[in-house]
Amino acid sequence: MKPKSSFTGYNKSLHNYAKRLRKSMTTQEQKLWFFFLKPHPLKWYSQRIIDRFIVDFYCSKAKIVIEIDGSQHFTEKGIAYDKERTAILNAYGLTVLRYTNTQIDYHFKEVCMDIERHLSFHNNG
Q1: Do residues 90 and 59 touch, judged by C-beta distance below 8 A?
Q2: What is the per-residue pLDDT across 53-112, written as a single tens digit (0 to 9) for each?
């Protein structure tokens, strides 16, 4: 897909839903948000609307989206949906990083290091 120059199709009707999601983050989302992303020197957004999607976390400066995947993402339907969603987000020039709940629970330090590697690549690339 050809990269899109800017976001289009912002779905204002998702605003209230995104707000509710921010208030009811999963344990894993809370952990990543409060212990790594929120205090991070770069500005991160939680439950951000991009096109017709609500992404878990987004950094506009780095053009990175982070998704925390629970069990629903590993069904046939979930895998197909995530593939389509990732392709659309990539078309905006965004990098989508996916981590599982298990990775956040048991390999948190490694997840944070992986995110930093992607941020370093962005700054040096």
Answers
A1: no
A2: 889 999 999 999 999 987 565 578 878 889 999 999 999 999 999 999 999 999 999 999
Which residues make Cβ contacts (< 8 Å) with residue 28, sequence separation at least 6? 68, 70, 101, 104, 105
**Domains of the chain (ranges plus CATH)?**
27-124 (3.40.960.10)
Task: Report the candidate in 56, 49, 121 with the shortest Cα–Cα distance to residue 92.
Answer: 49
Give Cα 57 to chain centroid, integer Å: 4
How far apart are alpha carbons 108 and 102 in whole angstroms?
Answer: 9
What is the identity of the amino acid at 99? Y
Long-range contacts of 39-42 (CB under 8 A, 24+ apart): 42/119
**Phi, psi for 75 (deg, rounded to 5):** -85, 165
